[in-house]
Write a structure and sequence with these properties.
Helices cover about 40% and strands about 20% of the residues. It is of the alpha+beta class. The protein has a 5-stranded mixed beta sheet with strand order 9-10-11-12-13, with helices on one face. The protein has a 3-stranded mixed beta sheet with strand order 1-7-8. Helix 7 crosses helix 8. It is globular, with a radius of gyration of 22 Å. The relative contact order is 0.12.
Amino acid sequence: MTIRLANADARRVFLAMQGLSERAPAGKAALLALITRLGFVQVDSIATVERAHHHILFSRAPAYRREHLTALLEKDGALFEHWTHDAAIIPTAFFPYWKHRFAQERASLAERWRSWHENGFEGYFEHVLARVRQEGRLMARHFEAEKRPPGGWWNWHPEKTALEYHWRTGALAIAGREGFQKVYDLTERVIPAHHRAAEVEASAFIDWACTSALERLGFATHGEIAAFWDLVSPEQAKAWVEANRDRLEPVLITCADGRERASHAFAGAGAAFAALPSPPSRLRVLSPFDPALRDRNRAERLFGFSYRIEVFVPAPKRLYGYYVFPLLEGDRLIGRIDMKADRKAGTLDVRRLWLEPGVRASKGRLDALDAELTRLGTFAGVERTVYAEGWLA
């Protein structure tokens, strides 16, 4: 039997699965439960208003406290940092599955490894690992050399390249951050022993990656299942769908443009979807790296909202701005806002607001936006919102 979801229902289901329909409770245990529910929280260095991981969690847990996240990462060993589609904070319970990721990274970096050997700085890899083993908790800045060959990734110096290689392939882990700079240590000193000891066979790994992705997406194509963690290929996800037909039901999603899109859901999902709550009607500012927007094409199909981060787009070619925040109102993405926190002045400086076609800049909506900016500004550590002349496009 095919489950049919009208566009409004598809948006409701998706937002509920993304943790945006209910306020997450306060406390460290609740924070771990929220991150486990989401699967991962992307980490990014840009702090135009607030760093992405803090903003993402604050959007779902108004009582979120940064020190709880630090404790879960650096003291409790309940979370670790590694790679999904990008750098992310991940529940340590998933670490056994990431061993397969480490093997994938070693394979994908094999060609670069050969070039590093050819450039004569393979010795740095052994040196860096030996020094971390002896001294523990080191940062890239602790490795300084007067003379060294050209760097590797992004023109990093060889020691930084070695640190990242050993992190990406599992020998090192992130023990903490100082000023957002990674602090590296041996994985055995960061990840609890029971998680490190656990082994998962390849077939169980693929089943977990696909099952856990679909659990968090609600409905998805095999390509969307593969993209969620970026742990398996679309071909592997397609084979998993075929092998698990008895566990799945077909779903037909009505997209924002009226077209229908075939997807998959777990058997019996129709009743579960119907029971999911609608998102609150209030207006919220989302992080550009919010997991609800990670798959830009999926978000555009569901919401009719085209969103791209323009950080790496030359200024004259940007459609909007360097770092523009999406606006969620109820179950609609209604616009985007360009703003920056000036912590020295204590202000949240709003440069420009763009509302989607058909969305009015009514007094009630602008008052709701002002209240949300005040709330976000307080979280980011500034006292007041300042609107530039001509901010309302």
